[in-house]
Amino acid sequence: MTMPSAELNQSLLTCDREHAGRQDSDPFDEIKIAKAISGDDAPNSNEWGEVLQSMSRSIQGKRFLLVLDDVWTNDPKKWEQLKVPLIQSGAKGSRILVTTRKLEVANMMRATRNMINLQELSDEYCLSIFNHMAFPDGDVQEFGDISKEIVKKCKGLPLAAKTLGSLMQNKTKMGEWKEVLNSKIWDLEKVEQEVFQPLFLSYYDLSPTIKSCLLYCAIFPKDHMFR
């Protein structure tokens, strides 16, 4: 489970390292990450040797904190290409913090001894997040009991509680709440789908025009620049 980006950014602001940086890592692109570390000195070329030299120069003899957020790729070749020059160039005391949802990634990075395994939230905490989003004024009205039933579907995932709470904020009829509670979306079996069930519910709640717009945007790769 990944640490929220806001918390990561705060940790970087309070870090006493000489250099600190955060990089979203899905998909894991070692060239893109190395260029981000190099900053303004990054070359225009994508030739790995040139990019590697630039990155190594930028951290040579310096302590750094590098945060790789939400890593899914467990390809050891990609990781070794990036890790070795980081270790060789950075000063003693440098740290690499990785967040991931996959144990295979931690095993690949040989980081299991230093792993912090975040557990699911209790239903009580999930309900607190859900109610904060669904009832901004704090008045749960007649929806208190059904809120607890919906929150149980979140399985301790804060993203699910937050997304569902936002979805329910403008639903004022009990029938609408029961429709969400009894949705067949909850019956999907794949683990990845468990994480995104509330997002599916939010999608189905959109107007047809917005759905079409969202699906059109989804054909473009991550970080695509629209012109």
TrEMBL record:
It comes from the Eukaryota. Keywords: Plant defense. GO terms for biological process: defense response. Signal peptide: none annotated. It holds the Pfam family NB-ARC. Residues 42-136 form the NB-ARC domain. One of its GO terms (molecular function) is ADP binding. This is PREDICTED: putative disease. It comes from Prunus dulcis (Almond).
